[in-house]
Every structure is written in structure tokens, then in C-alpha cells.
Amino acid sequence: MSLRQGPEQARALVIVPTFNERENLPVLVGELMRQPDVRVLVVDDQSPDGTGGVADGLARVHPGRIDVMHRTGVRGLGRSYIDGIAWSLHEPVDVICQMDADLSHDPRHLPSLIAAAGQADVVIGSRYVPGGAIRNWPRRRRVLSRLANIYIRQVTRLSARDCTSGYRCWRREALAAMPLDGFISDGYSFLVEMLFVAAGRGSRIAEVPITFVERRLGESKLSRAVLLESALTPWRLIARGRSTLRRP
Ligand SMILES: Nc1nc2c(ncn2[C@@H]2O[C@H](COP(=O)(O)OP(=O)(O)OP(=O)(O)O)[C@@H](O)[C@H]2O)c(=O)[nH]1
Ligand SMILES: [Mg+2]
Question: From the DSSP assignment, how many helices (H) and strands (E) are in the chain?
Fold first, then answer.
């Protein structure tokens, strides 16, 4: 099935998880609102800096185009995405996208991701395909990300070059077919798990180049615990894959 083409564009909903992004969110939303047929769902985890309130204000400025989910309970990127995806699947949209709030993911790349979803089930905004780039990352961050991707590809046999990118665009049907309540990771590893599960279900995974820009405002939430979960998840995924295969 092809997506709407030409003047009638695919209707896109972009899920933006936020935790303490009050300075970045208005800039990101402003840029996204310049694109036709794009809606936004902000999933805020009770940010102490008041990002949730900022998001509510943006929703009032752009009625019908911005929704805000105020999560309560256990915080987490994976959990936020699961809740956001479950909500988004009830909306009349053709593609559902994932994007960080910290302006690392330039909304100008969004049309190329959406266009590529015409021929793929999930499109990754990729730093590691020809034309992709990273701006303003220190050397140790570059090395860590490169090594993480080599490690994930080796262990899981995923063929995508950038398995940890959080900039993605899904065809709605592909996302709807994912067993969202069976996910085992709740942090950043959720991104790898999503790809692993999608690949296992035969989804077509494509990559389009993006230039990733290091955040200028706010703080990264990458912690030791996040890195540990990321190191273990590929093994947990293949272990689960094998045990699933062994079942009668
Ligand atoms: N809802 C929610 N959003 C989160 C959580 N942790 C991170 N985020 C958001 O997820 C996105 C990515 O988080 P970052 O802190 O930028 O992590 P990162 O991009 O891996 O790290 P940097 O490259 O250092 O920025 C941002 O939009 C964050 O605000 C969380 O627990 N809950
Ligand atoms: Mg970031």
C-alpha cells in the first residue's frame, strides 16, 4: 500500500518524549508547525522544570495540532513511547514518527523520512549511512556510539547501520502490529528492541541520512544505568528470541 503522494501528503504524527526540555520544546514545535500535515504528541514525564506546562501552552497556540500526555508513575523513555504509541494508533494518521526534543533531530529531515516510508515499514534517520553526520559531539561520544552500534549489530544481527537513533518514522500498520505490551526494556534500549522486534516480524527497515546535532540547551539523561541496560539488552533480546523459537 502506498502512502498519499504529491499535494496530498501523508498525515504524520510526531511523538516527542520530554524530560526537562522547557527551552528546547518551543523551538522544536515552532519548526514542526511550519510543515503541513504534521501533528505532535508531547509525552512528558512530570518534568521538574515545567516542560509539561510549556507544552500545554504550545497546544493552546496550535489548536488541533498539538496534544500533550502528562504521564504519572514510573518515568522512562521506553514507557513514554509505549504510552505515546498506544494513543497515536487511535488517531487518523498515516505515519507515526519518533523524535527527541533537544533539537538533535532536525525537523527539516522529516519530509525525507516520511517519503521513504512509502517503500519501507520503518525509516531510521541515520548518522551512519553515506550523507549522515554528527555535529559537535566530543570524540568519546562518537566512539561510544560507533562501538554501541557495532556491538548491537554483531549480537542481534540487525543490518541497520544506526540502531540507536531515536529519529524514526513508522508506517502506521507496522507500528500497530508490534506487541507493545511484550517489551522488556523501558529505557533507551527500547529503541533497539523496537527494531529487533520489527525485523523479526519481517518489517522492511530503511535508513535515510541525517545530520545529528548535539544538544545546546538542557542536560543529557544518559547515565551509567542507561549504558548498563544498553549493554545487556542485545543479549536479552536474542535469548528471548531463541526461547520463543523453542516453544512448540
Ligand atoms: N518522557 C520522557 N522523556 C525522556 C526521558 N528520558 C529522556 N527523555 C527524552 O528523550 C529524548 C532523548 O533524551 P536525551 O537526554 O537527549 O538523550 P540522548 O539524546 O541519548 O543524549 P544526548 O545526546 O546527550 O542528548 C529527549 O527528548 C529527552 O527529553 C524520560 O524518562 N521520559
Ligand atoms: Mg539528545
Answer: 8, 9
